[in-house]
């Protein structure tokens, strides 16, 4: 039993470190050597845990990115739509702040660099899951159902772009500007105003 716990812990660390490296270095900048070094995993563990190689490991990291974002979004359930929009951009600001403006979105990094249909499909599933979850929360928060999916898509797309601009410019200003504008859009669209 103890060996299984250690094995699953090593695998989890490898996945988490891959997600973090993808967010900082992108798909092509993330190597097995760095994953092993960052996770403290033994050299032979890579193909033991991920017999499908880098693609399998990256897909697992995409799943972690999806789950972490959905967990954060779920903490907003029942909040007014404007508060959801504000908190959504605070999450992205936190990513930038913790990394000293050096990390973005692991899912976007895979999307822009992958040629593998499996990786592109994996990234698409993550973005769809985020849009659906965010849309549902916006509906609960007062955004009309007819507008929620489009606004969720706008929020995610704008955040991804603003994070890229903030990283490139080494400034929070692009993200903060987009956050203010999208909060205004959500407030104007929402039926529940506080």
Average pLDDT works out at 93
**Percent range of helical residues:** over 70%
Radius of gyration: 18 Å
Instruction: Please write the string of helix (H) and strand (E) elements.
Output: HHHHHHHHH
Please outline the helices and strands.
Blueprint: H1 2-29, H2 32-39, H3 45-49, H4 54-74, H5 81-98, H6 106-113, H7 117-140, H8 145-169, H9 173-189
Helix pairs in contact: 1-2, 1-4, 1-6, 4-7, 5-7, 5-8, 5-9, 6-7, 7-8, 8-9
Write up what this structure looks like.
This protein is mainly alpha-helical and 194 residues long. It has one domain: Orthogonal Bundle (Tetracycline Repressor, domain 2), CATH 1.10.357. Helix content is 79%, strand content 0%. The longest helix is centred in the first third of the chain and has 28 residues, at 2-29. The termini are far apart. The mean pLDDT is 93.
Question: TL;DR?
Answer:
The protein is built from 9 helices and no strands.
Task: Supply database-style keywords.
mainly alpha; Tetracycline Repressor, domain 2; 79% helix; 194 residues; elongated
